[in-house]
Amino acid sequence: MTMDANDILRAHGPDRLRLAFDASRTVEGPGAGEPADAPVPDRVTATPWRWIDPAKIPPRQWLHDRHYNRKFLTATISGAGVGKSSHALLDAVSMACGRNLLTGSPIRPARVWYWNGEDPQEELHRRIAAIALHYRLDEADLAGRLFIDNGRDMQIKVAIDDRQRGIVLNRPDIDSVMETLGRHAIDACLFDPFVSIHAVPENDNGAIDMVAKALAGVADRCDCAIETIHHVRKGNGAELTVEDARGASALIGAARSVRVLNPMTLVEATKADIVPNERRLYFRIDNGKANMAPPAAAASWRKLVGVGLGNGTATYPEDQVGVVTAWSWPDAFEGLTSHDLKAVQNRVAGGRWRADVRSGEWVGRAIAEVLELDLDEEPDRAKVKALLRTWLGNRSLVTVERDDGSRRRRKYVEVGTWVETP
Question: Are 64 and 94 within 8 A, CB to CB?
């Protein structure tokens, strides 16, 4: 490989120079980065453990959102049309500009390479332009730190199914990727989608394990984070977990962190008072298995908003591009004061109210009457339940057992600690 060593040394320092020259080595399996002519060990050895002062162990080098981790492979999976590519580009732009665009918090600026195997370059420019317009970024925020390429102009195949040799790693492409990562001092690299960077059977666990281990080896050798965006298999509309990733499970097993994107369900849209045909604009992000995710109100939610590029002509209208934004579940307590709680307590104290939601004397009816909410409307009913959970939790209301007058013990709700009002 011919490189201008002095230029790399001046631009990136000795460590990056070493990484760039490491790109000339071949990559295969767990020993990624070893020279092609390296001797093969004749036996397996065990390395004795030695004590290391915990304070001297380097911390994990998180680049963004407790997901992108230097030296590790990560993955994000979702169904089609949910917003995974839009979210990946938002992550890329956030890292490049040095600001978490969803929260506004500063982060350490990083050099990011985003490669999309499906869309043309001009479409990627549209998406980045929309992000920049929405979050008020300009050229100076991204220049020199964001790199964008596509599979139509430049294919990347980490592994191939060769007729003569079978399934093998595609060493020229891997070496070229490593050379690029080292030459540009890339901190985070995003491959979108995973299926586009290999040409091996997707259901072959051994083949996908080879691809995943090769990518992890590149991340380790090039001291960068590598993210893959992956599809899920066709399902029946049920909530997705990491087990729903399409093809072999080896990718999920090799990834350090795996995020799952789930679209908002009709039930969730109803509770949040969102028009049903607009719920496709909302999605939830869970790390790990989605069936262990927090309740909807405590999860991390996103919303796609349309951004006009102002590029309309006499022939074509301006492009509208979806940009990912942060979205919070409606706060049940928004607009309420201590006077409202006091009014609820007075209403509860003036009657006998049951804890059982199925009862005609359910305490939620008292709350709805005071706050003028309609329990036949799902958003209002969900709000009443959320308020009741909180007030029972802080003992503004308490559950007690009482005789219902027919010698049957029932759970009732009474006033606990009276709220002080101004």
Answer: yes
Report the alpha-carbon distance of residue 211 to residue 174 in Å, rounded.
Answer: 10
- Dump strand ranges (E) for 208-360: 225-231, 257-263, 282-287, 300-308, 320-327, 353-354
Please write down the long-range contacts of 297-302, taking CB distance under 8 Å and 24 or more positions apart: 297/329, 297/386, 298/329, 299/329, 301/264, 301/326, 301/327, 301/328, 301/329, 302/83, 302/87, 302/102, 302/326, 302/327
Please say which residue of 307, 327, 347 terminates a domain: 327
Domain-embedded: residue 83: yes
pLDDT for res 8: 43
Least Cα distance to 337 among 389, 387, 386, 394 occurs for: 387
How many residues are there in the chain?
Answer: 422
Range of the domain at 318: 5-35+58-327
Q: Which amino acid is at 227?
A: E
325-358 tens-digit pLDDT? 999 988 888 899 999 999 999 999 999 999 999 9
Q: Is residue 390 part of a domain?
A: yes
The span from the CA of 113 to the CA of 128, in Å, is 13
Q: Are 310 and 373 in the same domain?
A: no
What is the tally of structural domains in the chain?
A: 2
